[in-house]
């Protein structure tokens, strides 16, 4: 199973991606997690990414596409994966299309989670209090939501047109949302 999970910050992508990874026995690959790991360990990649992530801006495509390409080439990604937080703009969609063509492994589906603005703001505030992420400042949160609306949300139309979109309501109990996703995916991919 090769999946993307998309949706605005705070919609629960990471939580649902982890559950899907467990369900299908595939790795969940989060570009945000890869950047945070490198920033924490002060690698050259981390030092370069940090100036963007701290402000809630997108890390340049050249850097981001390279880390995804390298990650998808790893052994544990041979039989499937779920990508969380990538692609985030039109040029990343193109880069991913090219990677998949080279690997000869098409996408199975794109899970799109959504929730209304108030729910998202409430969840982000809660996460900021609990996790203290460097990019959970009010300014960075606002930048990320605006970037999502401008650059990432339009990508859903591309995948809808390709017949790959599975749209799921992101409001409710975690387990119930997960069950809805799995039911919709199994119906689609079967
Ligand atoms: P996330 O955990 O997905 O919200 O990602 C945290 C931060 O990492 C984002 O605000 C961006 O600065 C950076 N990032 C993650 N994924 C991407 C991507 N696909 N393209 C560019 N920057 C990204």
UniProtKB/TrEMBL annotation:
Where does the secretion signal sit in this chain?
Answer: none
- Which biological pathway? Purine metabolism; AMP biosynthesis via salvage pathway; AMP from ADP: step 1/1
Residues annotated as region NMP?
30-59
Q: Which domain of life is it from?
A: Bacteria
Give the residues the record marks as binding AMP.
Answer: 31, 36, 57-59, 85-88, 92, 133, 144
Q: Give the keywords, sorted.
A: ATP-binding, Cytoplasm, Kinase, Nucleotide biosynthesis, Nucleotide-binding, Transferase
E.C. designation(s): 2.7.4.3
Q: Where does ATP bind?
A: 10-15, 127, 172
Major location (coarse): cytoplasm
Molecular function per GO: AMP kinase activity; ATP binding
Catalyzed chemical reaction(s) = AMP + ATP = 2 ADP
Segments forming a coiled coil: none
Q: Cross-referenced InterPro entries, in alphabetical order?
A: Adenylat/UMP-CMP_kin, Adenylat_kinase_CS, P-loop_NTPase
Q: Does the keyword ATP-binding apply?
A: yes
Q: Name one Pfam family in it.
A: ADK
Cellular component, GO annotation: cytoplasm
| One BP term from GO | AMP salvage
Q: Where in the cell is it found?
A: Cytoplasm
Q: What is known of its domains?
A: Consists of three domains, a large central CORE domain and two small peripheral domains, NMPbind and LID, which undergo movements during catalysis. The LID domain closes over the site of phosphoryl transfer upon ATP binding. Assembling and dissambling the active center during each catalytic cycle provides an effective means to prevent ATP hydrolysis.
Query: What exactly does this protein do?
Result: Catalyzes the reversible transfer of the terminal phosphate group between ATP and AMP. Plays an important role in cellular energy homeostasis and in adenine nucleotide metabolism.
Q: Which family does it belong to?
A: Belongs to the adenylate kinase family.
Instruction: Please give the subunit comment from the record.
Output: Monomer.
Q: What is this protein called?
A: Adenylate kinase
């Amino acid at each position: 199973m090769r999946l993307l999970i998309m949706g605005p910050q705070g919609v629960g992508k990471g939580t649902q991606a982890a559950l899907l990874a467990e369900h299908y026995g595939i790795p969940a690959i989060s570009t945000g997690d890869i950047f945070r790991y490198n920033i924490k360990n002060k690698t050259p990649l981390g030092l370069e990414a940090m100036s963007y992530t701290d402000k809630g801006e997108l890390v340049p495509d050249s850097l981001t596409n390279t880390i995804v390409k390298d990650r998808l080439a790893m052994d544990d990604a041979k039989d499937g994966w779920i990508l969380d937080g990538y692609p985030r703009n039109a040029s990343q969609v193109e880069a991913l299309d090219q990677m998949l063509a080279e690997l000869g492994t098409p996408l199975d589906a794109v899970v799109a989670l959504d929730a209304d603005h108030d729910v998202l703001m409430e969840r982000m505030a809660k996460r900021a209090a609990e996790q203290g992420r460097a990019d959970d400042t009010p300014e960075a949160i606002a930048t990320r939501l605006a970037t999502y609306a401008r650059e990432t949300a339009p990508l859903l139309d591309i995948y809808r047109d390709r017949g790959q979109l599975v749209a799921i309501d992101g409001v409710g109990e975690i387990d119930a949302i997960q069950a809805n996703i799995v039911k919709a995916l199994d119906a689609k991919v079967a």
